[in-house]
Write a structure and sequence with these properties.
- 3% of the residues lie in helices and 33% in strands.
- It is mainly β.
- This is Alpha-amylase-like.
- Keywords: Signal.
Length: 207
């Protein structure tokens, strides 16, 4: 069991270390053969002991995850890259992370999804359209900052631009932006929808 505590800060904070299903969708139009990766956790300025030289196991700014990826042909590469990817972090491939045809991962692999139920890549979490890249994981919410974390897309060796997220997202779980960041700010245990290089956002409960 874990407890939920309402703080005077005005948003839901999670105590203990519950693993909750968390989804991140970033809309990005891509070409065939491109793969979008997500990097994130907490900015290293938010907690003591966070830096790139600290091991993932000891770094308080990375967040443990477990991937939920279906085993369809379209996701063979993402499935391979998800093996040994145990954290949402700001670096590239983890020491034991899998590769695909000798190509290393560049972060946590996302999968291309559509809202078209006639296509193999249809995903029920995508109610928007084509080109929504999804990271669907079980996340340790106890490693977030009061239930929130940061994430950014990484494509073809390039980061997303700095993000100025909307003061308040749309959606059933939306609250005022909990802190300033140059990254997308997402909520653990919810469905988070963003757009590449854009500050618009939606945070909702799972249906």
């Amino acid at each position: 069991m874990y407890s939920l505590l309402i703080l005077t800060c005005g948003f839901l904070c999670v105590t203990g270390s519950p693993n909750l299903r968390t989804a991140i969708l970033i809309e990005k139009r891509t070409e065939f053969g491109q793969n979008l990766f997500f990097r994130g956790g907490l900015d290293y300025s938010r907690k003591e002991g966070c830096d790139s030289a600290t091991s993932l196991e000891s770094n308080p700014c990375v967040i443990p995850i477990q991937h939920n990826i279906s085993s369809i042909d379209a996701y063979k590469a993402a499935k391979a890259w998800s093996e040994g990817d145990n954290y949402l972090d700001w670096s590239g491939a983890e020491p034991e992370q899998g590769d695909w045809t000798n190509i290393p991962a560049s972060g946590s692999p996302a999968i291309w999804t559509t809202n078209d139920p006639s296509k193999e890549t249809f995903n029920i979490l995508n109610t928007y359209g084509d080109h929504y890249w999804l990271l669907d994981v079980e996340m340790d919410c106890g490693k977030t900052l009061n239930g929130f974390f940061e994430v950014k897309g990484f494509l073809d060796g390039q980061w997303e631009n700095d993000i100025k997220q909307a003061r308040k997202c749309s959606g059933t779980e939306a609250v005022r932006r909990p802190f300033e960041s140059k990254n997308h700010i997402a909520k653990c245990g919810a469905k988070n929808v963003f757009h590449f290089n854009d500050g618009a956002c939606e945070i909702s409960k799972f249906d």
